[in-house]
Design a protein that fits this description.
Layout lengths: L34 E4 L11 H9 L25 H6 L1 E2 L2 E11 L3 E14 L2 E14 L5 E7 L15 H9 L3 E5 L19 H16 L5 E11 L1 H12 L6 E5 L6 H9 L6 H10 L7 H6 L13 E6 L7 H13 L4 E6 L9 H16 L1
Parallel strand pairs: 6-7, 6-8, 8-9, 9-10, 10-11
Antiparallel strand pairs: 1-11, 2-4, 3-4, 4-5, 5-7
Helix pairs in contact: 4-5
Amino acid sequence: MRAPCRTMIALVASAALLTGCSADESEGGSGGGASSSASASPGESPESTPSDQAAAEEASPEPPEASPEVEARKEEPAARPVSVLGLAEQRHRGDRLRLGAVRERTAAYTSYDVTYRSRSTTRKGEESYTISGVLNVPRGRGPFPAVVLAHGYIDPAVYVRGQGMTRERGYLAGRGYVALHVDYRNHAESDDDPLFQTRIRLGYTADVINAVKALRRSPDVPVDDDRVALFGRSMGGGVILKALVAEPGLVQAAAPWASVSSLEGENYDQFIRPDPEDSGLREQLARRYGTPEQNPRFWRENSSRPYFDRITEPVLMVHGRLDDTCPPRWASATQRALTGAGVDSRLEWYADGHAFGPSFNAAMDRTVRFFDRQLG
């Protein structure tokens, strides 16, 4: 049953993407103590040739390189399809959340396999994907606050349903939150998008936005529609930052943990450029769009940071000082850019690495308190 009080969420458009790293002990491939506070589309066919697409979508005269920060953003032409603002122009209408097999029953919650429809209207028509995931529902009548989880990078070839944020999902449900883990397209039992890589994985952000909407529309899950948050780890941290940019007002709060950079050029340099297994992807991206050096505008437009002034939700960033996958300097730079853009944001540091081991419970307790305060 639905929550009795339902407010209309302000829609601007929709979603975005990410490249990145993983936050789970079983992460693979590229990409992926006491705390101290610091404020510190299947419908689209591949082009006849990659160079044709590059000419059509990306090869406009290159302006002089500008600072990636919000204040340096000048007048921009109409958003290109493969960009964060291009995703924001789409209409996202996630629905058809279906409960499947029961995975687990505990004294605090029941866990289900689920699927939902990730449906977006683009300039070329409608795209629709069935996305798999895992849903933990607290015991009781509800309605409950909810958190949609975006996992970090795990090679889709080995990824299994619900992988990457099992601890977080159980922790949240044990404290009274519905927790929906999104597998993303091309993962587990989800439908495949043949262009997900060359679209810079913007489809992952569309899947997260559509998950929020599908959860709110479900008659089977007792969710309070006005008390929903996003929680992303590593690559998923970048995914949810793009969701906040693409659809302001979608949720009431967001928590990126151990996030990738909010500048896609830095993610390219950290994960794609040095990885021998990504040579094919590097060639595809170079042919279509150019490298970050050759086409800085494209990589800036696929970053969340230049558009942080669109974000309306409070943000809690969590990062380990010992993170050797997503460097701590990325978190500091993202935090400075968020606050500089007027976002209500806070960065919490922990003496831990990328996956969060010893500090996991303390960091989760801090995150739940943040959600409790922001969701009411």
